[in-house]
Amino acid sequence: MARNRQESMEENRAKLIAAARKAFADKGYAASSMDALTAEAGLTRGALYHNFGDKRGLFAAVVEQIDTDMANRAKAKGADAGEGWPAMLAEGAAYIEMALDPEVQRIVLLDGPAVLGDPSQWPSQNSCLQVTREAIEQLMKGGVLKPVDAEAAARLISGAALNAAMWVAASESPETVLPKAQEAFRALAEGLLSKPVP
Asked: Could you give the domains of the chain?
């Protein structure tokens, strides 16, 4: 019986996140109504309050889901580029490119900071930061990167990619801004290399 209740709660949570993800992408956070969200999911406001506390809590869950998807997509692009430094650069460039995705643009890069505050404090961003720090530590051990503080380097690389993506998302011409943002990101990141790129 308890297992069925747990499954039902997880199903309700997934329904609310799916409905909210669509509504926040289509209308934005401010214009999305909790009544419309819960009706779309076939649930009550009580289910929303029980699972997420309020609309902001539901939005945070949606942002975390999308941000996790983004990290996985960037990781896949990095793996396609190889290992080590090329993978790290490819992941950063891929993250910035995701700013062209309307859902990512609106929910994560535009509404996210306005509703949830500083992205560096989001749990999903902290998880990405940890992975980046570990990769940087390995690159430093291999002599690829200068021996600077690994956490500082990870925060600067992650912050540069995030801010570049936010710039792309907020610009009037994202497709024009994207290559500029990626080129500048690459140039900044290459400043950490122990030897210049030939």
From this structure: 1-53 (1.10.10.60), 56-191 (1.10.357.10)
